[in-house]
Amino acid sequence: MDLQTPCNACMLINRNPASPKLSFSRNNISMPKYRCKTVSELQSTASVNGGASPSPVPSHKITVHDRQRDVVHEFYVPEDQYILHTAEDQDIKLPFACRHGCCTSCAVRIKSGELKQPEALGISAELKSKGYALLCVGFPSSDLEVETQDEDEVYWLQFGRYFARGPIERDDYALELAMGDE
């Protein structure tokens, strides 16, 4: 059974440090599955608890042109949610690998709109300025239209100038030193 942990937004809003309760039966253990609450659920929870209704977090329409699968996805993402995670919650399959903003598997090129990606370590500032972004750590700031990129293309754009100097000459002496041969 897949047990998901609550997202940061749910942890902040719920502020419930209690761990989930386990229910036992004779032959198995059932564990609850966390699910992020929708804006309307959060508003109704706040009004039931007697608190002031929180202002709803704005959501933005995200359009992803998935070049590899030749399909277009459209979905809505709140400003405080990662685009990739929200897509997955809606059973939309997008490319990804590390989920931490360190690789370029989920790289996209922005066609229109804006997003924030303060944790995107896998994309250089130069590529960000050219409109590249990572969906796994991207928060929408407006309606957004993006196109998936081939990971190798993005990697080449980012590092190709370092490898484009031609083949590396073999240095047998350095190789012998590295291997410990004399």
From TrEMBL:
Cofactor: [2Fe-2S] cluster
InterPro entries (UniProt xref): 2Fe-2S_ferredoxin-like_sf, 2Fe-2S_ferredoxin-type, Beta-grasp_dom_sf, Fd_pln
Pfam families on file: Fer2
Any one Gene Ontology cellular component term annotated for this protein: chloroplast
Cofactor note: Binds 1 [2Fe-2S] cluster.
Domain of life from the UniProt record: Eukaryota
Chief localization: plastid
Protein's cellular compartments: Plastid, Chloroplast
Keywords: 2Fe-2S, Chloroplast, Electron transport, Iron, Iron-sulfur, Metal-binding, Plastid, Transport
Coiled coil stretches, renumbered: none
2Fe-2S ferredoxin-type domain residues: 60-152
Alphabetized GO MF terms: 2 iron, 2 sulfur cluster binding; metal ion binding
SUPFAM superfamilies recorded: 2Fe-2S ferredoxin-like
Family recorded in the similarity comment: Belongs to the 2Fe2S plant-type ferredoxin family.
Entry function: Ferredoxins are iron-sulfur proteins that transfer electrons in a wide variety of metabolic reactions.
Name this protein carries in UniProt: Ferredoxin
Organism field: Salvia divinorum (Maria pastora)
